[in-house]
Amino acid sequence: MISNGNGRWRYEYTAVLIHFFIWGFVALDRIAISFLFPLMLPELKMGFTEAGLVMSIVGLTWAAGGLIFGTFSDKYGRKTVIIPATIAFSILSWMSGLSRNFGQLLAIRAVLGLPEGAYYAAGTATIAEVSTPKRRGLMIGIHHSAWAIIGALLGPIYMVAVATAWGWRWALYLTVIPGIIIAIIHWRFIREPASTEARIKARKEGRAHEVRSETGETLGWKDVLGHRNVIISSLISITIMTWFWIWVSFGAVFVTDFRKVPFLDTGFVLAAFGLGGAAGYIGLTALSDVIGRRPALSIAAAVTALATYGMALVGPDPLALTICIFLMGLAGFGLFSLTVGVVAAEAVPFAMAGLSIAIVTGVGEFFGAVIMPTVGGMLADAYGLQVPMLVSATGAVAAALLGLGLTETAPEKVAAKAPAVIVEPEAA
Fold it and tell me: What ranges in 77-167 are assigned the alpha helix state H?
């Protein structure tokens, strides 16, 4: 880290900006396909259950990629993981456009999850470490907001426009270009964080490098698994992944088929989710720097639940539907960032943050992102599209309740609770 204050500020924001675009293209590559389902499903002869499986398989391999490569990045370096992962998921997104049937699409999306999960663990750990403690929530929020801005706000507009003009395959083909460019930029301008740089240096010199807690105790992977906030965050991750991936998997077809919104207008209705998310990612995580992680998380989850129930029950009014979707993004994206980003990163020393983030994300991906989209598809086939939307909302209710059990980790809140140190005057 550059010692000069202005230099540190510049590097901190440079790192966040570059990672903002990488994470945004992860979002575009992962969720954009759901915006194309109204066109893809008939051509590839897929039902809602098959659509759910396509979304679920990415969650399964994402969890595996995060756990494997998150731990690897802790030991061998963040850049060693981030650059190859960015190139890989960009190429695999392009390959998704080559699919001619359900089996091919499922296989390509399965491989796609590995590098995307690898990036998230290593990338979020990097941002958490290079950020100034008092604005760590804000910096992670800015980084995570790319999911909303590029993936959920610009994504549906881009996908619908290109698919309408040139076909859904070209909408996927073009995603490879920005991914390759941003990987090169990262290689050029971002250096290894201090914690992993120290471990790499020790390994090269043949020295053991132990990770220690604030009290000086040596930490291992079992200590990460047993940490209170890692356990609770993992449970919250399941609930918010349930909320998020059911909505993302079937939101487009819910709006077009159930609410009867014309396909060309769907991109703008769904863009409200990304617009709200952009504000929520930054606003709620910044708010958590001030009021604390625990209250910010529970409030966000409660608002997410109410907005999602409203979206499912509001009726055919397009304006009311758009407002509910906006509020879902506003609160839900901030909730996501707090749980799998900020709280997970602050639970342990930065040298083990990749593993902590991978555990919290991986558990949520497996139970929420892998299982629930398929369950949602089965419920939609059996009972209609409204039922999985109600299940999605109930996941946010559970997140609000679980959030009350977290231990506070916001640096300024923790410092305020620390006992004052009284310095006795020296004797004359």
Answer: 78-96, 102-130, 136-146, 155-166
Give the architecture-level CATH label for domain 14-197+219-405.
Up-down Bundle (1.20)
Residue 36 and residue 166: Cα distance in Å, rounded?
A: 13
**pLDDT value at position 8?**
65
pLDDT, residue 332, reads: 92
Q: Which residues contact 86 (CB under 8 A, 6 or more apart)?
A: 22, 25, 115, 119, 179, 182, 183, 186
The token duo for 255 is 């709006």
Distance between CA atoms of 248 and 267, rounded to whole angstroms? 13
Closest CA to 386 of 311, 304, 325: 311
pLDDT at res. 184: 94
Residue 83: alpha-carbon gap to chain centroid: 18
pLDDT tens by residue, 234-266 = 999 999 999 988 988 888 888 888 777 777 677
Strands 211-212 and 218-219: antiparallel
CA gap 105, 96 in Å, rounded: 6
What are the C-alpha distances in Å from 323 to residues 172, 269, 292, 293?
Answer: 29, 9, 27, 26
Mean pLDDT per 10-residue segment, the chain (428 residues): 54 92 90 82 86 84 86 86 94 91 93 92 87 85 86 81 90 90 93 81 68 55 74 93 87 81 72 84 87 92 95 81 91 88 80 81 82 85 89 94 89 68 43
Buried b (16+ CB within 10 A) or exposed e, 254-275: bbbebbebeeeebbebbbbbbb
Which phi and psi angles does 211 have, rounded to 5°?
-95, 130
| 385 contacts 260 by C-beta, under 8 angstroms | no
> Which SS3 state, helix, strand or coil, does residue 218 take?
strand
Distance CA 347, CA 352 (A): 9
